[in-house]
Specification:
Elements (H helix, E strand, L loop, with lengths): L3 E7 L6 H15 L3 E8 L5 H11 L3 E6 L5 H11 L4 E4 L11 H8 L5 E6 L6 H19 L11 E4 H4 L12 H7 L4 E6 L16 H13 L4
Parallel strand pairs: 1-2, 1-4, 2-3, 5-7
Antiparallel strand pairs: 4-6, 5-6
Length: 227
């Protein structure tokens, strides 16, 4: 019986696949729990599919779900949730900005009686103008509107009890609001401070210069239960 499923949406991340796989495998093997790595290939048109094919042949822990076209991070996340075999789901980005070494602490916290444990990137390593300021503003607005007890609503690194997200169908952009959606559903949330690294290689694929506006639009859907 699989205990942990790591769900990782990836789009054109050919340079990050190998180092991410190695770090995840090292961390999860040390935990000595049955696990799987579930990569969601979000319509990549670089060498990502080729490298995934090689990983699947080499390691029975690896599963890959492939979208024929790019559907976005929310669709990829929803597919990962519904397809996970583990009792616990870990989500993280595919660019190594989330540090796999934080995973055991999130799971340990989850096992104390929480439904969701969110990572809090308390010392971010990205652009202040492009990401830090918009993120702080979006987090402030979200906390005020929903009372969700989380500082960093945009951090992908989280641990979930699978039953809380198995049937969660996210609207476009809804991945930014998973914590608030689950809070509104009555799930018990906690957070853990996590490391945040500079992107290992390549360029961000899921960014938008209109992040705050998109966040507010998405937040309205959450508040109105349109998710």
């Amino acid at each position: 019986m699989t205990y942990i499923t790591a769900v990782i949406p990836m789009y054109n991340e050919e340079e990050n696949i190998s180092p991410l796989y190695k770090q995840l495998t090292k961390v999860l093997k040390k935990m000595k729990k049955p696990y799987e790595l579930l990569f969601i290939d979000d319509g990549s048109d670089d060498k990502t599919p080729k490298y995934f094919k090689e990983l699947k042949k080499a390691d029975k822990h690896v599963r890959v779900i492939t979208f024929k076209q790019n559907k976005g991070q929310s669709a990829a996340m929803s597919k990962g949730f519904s397809s996970a075999k583990g009792k616990i789901i870990i989500t993280l980005d595919g660019d190594l900005q989330n540090d796999p070494s934080d995973i055991p602490r999130l799971i340990k916290k989850l096992e104390t009686g929480f439904d969701v444990v969110c990572g809090w990137r308390y010392n971010r390593k990205d652009s202040k103008l492009v990401k830090k300021i918009p993120s702080k503003l979006a987090n402030y607005i979200s906390r005020k509107a929903t009372k969700a007890p989380v500082h960093d609503l945009g951090c992908t690194l989280r641990a979930y009890k699978t039953e809380c997200v198995k049937d969660l169908k996210l609207f476009k952009g809804g991945h930014r609001h998973i914590s608030t959606i689950l809070h509104k559903k009555g799930c018990k949330l906690a957070e853990v401070k996590v490391k945040h690294n500079p992107r290992f290689a390549g360029k961000a694929k899921y960014n938008s210069p209109f992040r705050v506006i998109e966040c507010i639009k998405g937040l309205r859907k959450v508040v109105k239960n349109e998710h």
